[in-house]
Amino acid sequence: SSQQALEQARAVAEELEDLKAVAKGLEEENSELRRQARQLVRGPASSLPQNQQLLAECHGLREQIQVLAAEMADLEVRGGSRAAWPMPSASL
Q1: pLDDT tens digit at each of 92 positions of the chain
Q2: Could you tell me the CA-to-CA distances from 79 to 15, 72, 89 in Å, in that order?
Q3: Which of the two ends of the chain, N or C, has the fewest CB atoms closer than 10 A to its terminal CB?
């Protein structure tokens, strides 16, 4: 049973790392979209539809980041609540 608990802890740790990587990618994409949106705001009025699209994408990314952050917090809590289980190390 402790072997099974260890495997579950490893799976949760891997899932957490995957979510962190996805969140980082979304944050980078969000930053790029914000940069593009700032440039478009300074551009001609004909870029307004594209600007609105970028702002909508930015909003969607922000929501995805919040969802991922909540999932990561949940995984950390679930992993932390199993304090009796040995947590996998980075070398495993």
Answers
A1: 888 889 999 999 999 999 999 999 999 999 998 888 888 777 666 667 777 888 898 888 889 988 988 888 888 887 765 444 444 444 33
A2: 11, 10, 13
A3: N
